[in-house]
Design a protein that fits this description.
The protein is α+β, with helices and mostly antiparallel strands. It has helices at about 10-50, 50-60, 65-70; strands spanning about 75, 80-85, 90-100, 105-115, 120-130, 135.
Length: about 140
């Protein structure tokens, strides 16, 4: 008479560790990556909502020379780089904003200070892909 097979008496961990450990490690890595992406997206959103950024984009869209060079509409790039600090009525910004139009690309360079609630632009220029610079301060934007 043949003996019946013995039931597997190993515990859950002994039966499942080979898939649970890599899955758990992958989950930790994905959560960490998601946290980093969320912080990055938050910082980008804060920079895009600043008065210095909004004023620079308004000046770029209102600049006949930039519109002639890269075309209309002027679109904003994905990654703003630089430093930004705002504390109530004061602050400073040193940022580079990539922009593009149907005929080309440019980078807007902004050096600004917020004094008494108003952004004052020390530098507000667009540099085209070929190296030409366009001064965007013809009519400096005032954004609160």
């Amino acid at each position: 008479m043949a003996e019946a097979p013995m039931p597997d008496r190993r515990n859950w961990w002994d039966r499942n560790w080979k898939w649970f450990v890599p899955t758990g490690c992958l989950l930790v890595v994905l959560l960490f990556a998601g946290f980093i992406v969320a912080i990055f997206a938050g910082v980008m959103a804060m920079m895009r909502q600043s008065g210095a950024y909004e004023g620079a984009m308004r000046a770029a869209r209102d600049s006949p020379a930039l519109v002639a060079a890269i075309g209309e509409p002027i679109g904003e790039g994905s990654f703003v780089s630089g430093n930004f600090e705002e504390n109530g009525p004061s602050g400073s910004a040193s940022i580079a904003i990539p922009v593009s139009g149907p005929r080309g690309e440019a980078t807007i360079y902004v050096e600004a200070k917020k004094v008494a609630g108003q952004w004052q632009y020390d530098v507000l220029v667009a540099q085209l892909a070929g190296g030409e610079r366009i001064d965007l301060q013809g009519a400096p934007p005032q954004v609160e």
